[in-house]
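Dear support,

I submitted the protein below through the web form. The confirmation email said the job was done, but the results page showed an empty box. After a refresh the structure appeared. I'm attaching both so you can tell me whether what I see now is the final result or a partial one.
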Amino acid sequence: MERDYSYVAAELKPEFIMEIYKLLGECGVQIPKHDLHSTIIFDDRGIDRPLAELHPEREFRAFVTKLEPLGDGVVFHLTSPDLNEEFRRLRDAGYQHAYETPLPHISIAYDFDEYDIMALNSVFSDWPGKELVFWKADYGWKKPKG
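What the results page shows now:
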């Protein structure tokens, strides 16, 4: 598989992934088919090589502000000086963000209905204000050829 370097993302650390999966299982919501991550910058020009790499040893701390639907997913919105600083560094290295402003978030569910939203709000009701920690994900997303 070819790599797509248009996305630079930080992966959620394993202990937080396990906690989210446990709560998703408790409320009967399907576990995401992707890594739990926060995309820091997305450049829609089709970048074929890294313009800059995410700091390999750095941890990025973020706080959950709320849970809500966003596009086709349910996300935790995040506030994070660390992620914002990394966004600026990547932009300064040549990435052009495809959206007007960064929107730090982590998608936790897709293909949801009203019941799923109620269940998610119930099991994650105490998560606003919770600190999550991200680190360097496998750099460059794999995309199928063709």
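Response: this is the final, complete result; the empty box was a page-load delay. The helical segments are 14-27, 81-92, 114-123.
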